[in-house]
Amino acid sequence: MRKKPRNIPYDHDWHRLSKRFLMVHPLCMVRGCGKQAKHVDHIVTVRAAPHLRLDWSNLQALCHQHHSRLTHAYDQGRLSGTCDVDGLPLDPNHPWAQASQSEAIAAVNRRLPADPRLAALLKCGYVRGERR
Ligand SMILES: [Zn+2]
Question: Cβ neighbours of residue 6 under 8 Å, at least 6 residues apart?
Fold first, then answer.
């Protein structure tokens, strides 16, 4: 019988750290939520920054609803509130941020995932109640 491969991002160290984090932060950190936190979320994803996987400052406690909403929408590139006060896109990969029409067309067809740093910024803004 083959051994089940170990899920490295969510190993023993992670479970111990996330348990400790939820003891210190028992409530969802999204402003105005106040529900019991069930998940510890990586602000910058493990894929984008594996060295921050066990970094306390890269964690936030979330209820089930907010965790699902954030991980699906923000990590998979369906970002909202991604423009500045002038309505211009913050994402340098956005078609509107390109210098020419042909580059804009290329940007549309690339379908790049969201920039992880931008996603983290938006995630923090969402949690603090600055963005919806
Ligand atoms: Zn919540």
Answer: none
